[in-house]
Each structure stands twice: as C-alpha cells, then as structure tokens.
Amino acid sequence: MQNVLIIGATGMLGHKLCQRLPEMGFKVSATVRNDTSLYADYSAIFKAVNLIGNVDVLDDNSVQHTVKQQEYDFVINCVGIIKQRKSAENKLLSIAINAYLPHKLAQICEEARSKLIHISTDCVFDGERGLYHESEETNAKDVYGLTKLLGETDVEETSAITLRTSIIGRQLVEPKLSLIEWFLRQNGKTIKGFNKAIYTGITTEEMARVIALVMNSQNFESGTHHVASTPISKYDLLIRLRDIMKLDIKIEKDDEFFCDRSLIMDSFSKMTGYAAPSWDEMLSELANDQTPYTTNN
Q1: pTM of the entire structure?
Q2: Considering only CA atoms, which of 274, 234, 290 is closest in space to residue 16?
Q3: Burial (Cβ within 10 Å: 0-12, 13-18, ≥19) of residue 168
Q4: Which pLDDT score is estimated for 177?
C-alpha cells in the first residue's frame, strides 16, 4: 500500500482526494492549517485519512517536518492562491504559495526520497489562441498565471511532476468561489453562457483518478504535462450541467467574450495511456455526488 501525503486537505481538489484515494487503496495523510478539532463537521470526508493539523505552508520548517515525519511515497500539493480569491491581489502571498512552495516541496521530497505531484493551471496561457502544447511558450499576463508558471517543476527536479490542467467541482469550505458553486447559486435566475470560452479541464473526481494513475504508473517522467479533455464551450458545459441537475436556470448565449485556453495532451497520454471521459460522463458523476455539500445564496 502506497503512503500518500496531501498538502491542503480542505480545498476543492484536496478534499476530493481525501475521499477517493483511500477507496482506491492508498494510505492517506493530509494537512490542514488549523487544529484538527476545527474540522469535526467534516469527519465523514476525512474518516479514512490521518489529518495533520497546524501545518503552515509559509513556514519551511513546518513543511519540512510534516513531509519527513513519515516515509511517504508521494506528496500531492493541493495548495494554491486562486485568481477568484481576494488574496490573489497580494503579490507576496501569491509568490510564496504559487511560485516558491512547489519548488521547496520538490527539494524536500528529493531529500526524503518521496515523489511530488504538483498541480498547475491552463492560466499560464493568455487564451488568445487555444490548443496549446507543453512545448509552447507561455504568455500569462496576470499575477495568478505568472506565479503558477513560476511554480511549475522542471525536468531537472527529478522527484517532481507538474500536471498542468484546470478542474471544476464542488467546494467544501467557504468562500465558495468556483464556477460550479457560482452556477448552483443561480437557480431561478437568468445568466450568460460564454460560447467562445473554450475549456479542456476535468472534474475533481476525474482528477483523483488521474493522480492515482500517476502513482500506480511504472513511468514517472519529471517536468510539466498537460491533462486535458475534449474541448467544450463554457456555454455548452453549463447547459449540460443544468439539464443533468434539472436546475431552473435560463442561460443566454454570449458570443462576444472570447477566451480559449484549451490544452493538447501529448506527453501525459504517451506516459500513461490516459484519455479523459466524455463531458456527459464527468458531469453526470459530479451531479450525482452524494457528499453533503451546502450551497449558500
């Protein structure tokens, strides 16, 4: 049984990994920033996880002690400052967490003989063209994209792999700022759906399977790899999710806004043989998730 440490247990991806990886046969520990007693309301989520409290990712000693206190086969970095949060305006914090932390984790993992899986974003591209390959020059223009780019591990960091992708899913804790949480709050309303905003992300449920695939694979190729699905417009994505979840939302097609950050998945498919499921499959699974989430209007 492989021993896994998740950095950031309560985030959109972190909590889903805490749910799914134990079901897949992994021994899982996960960090939270406060005392573990504060997360008693989420005991069903973390029931099969060794929760480690009071881990400060801004403190190198705290991070190093946590990673080295057990012999972990894999460390998964699920911590990040996302662009929707007000804290994203704090350049120093974004640099510390998005840019510095992944490389510090890679260094610690190499010393501890663990492997690091780090998650990056399609926002390292400006979205003016789409169908980006790993080999193409990035051109992010905002603090989020630039700091996430700086945090991507390279081939010389042989104990680390970066998965460049985008994820959608439910959130466990406030503030709930993701696309899906925003969409669920629109029940009974009329919204715009961007027909020329092209997306190749995956759900957090699917990302859990992708990460398990990496950990079970005989091939671990350092560097940055794209993980992508079939391109879909944000308009079509929301239409499908609305219909699957039987929501009362009128979605007006908007053809003015344009952003295409679609990714081409080359090296990851060659490394693992992976192909993403259809959008109908992923959205149906998301809609049928029995986790007791709350939606605040």
Answers
A1: 0.96
A2: 290
A3: buried
A4: 86
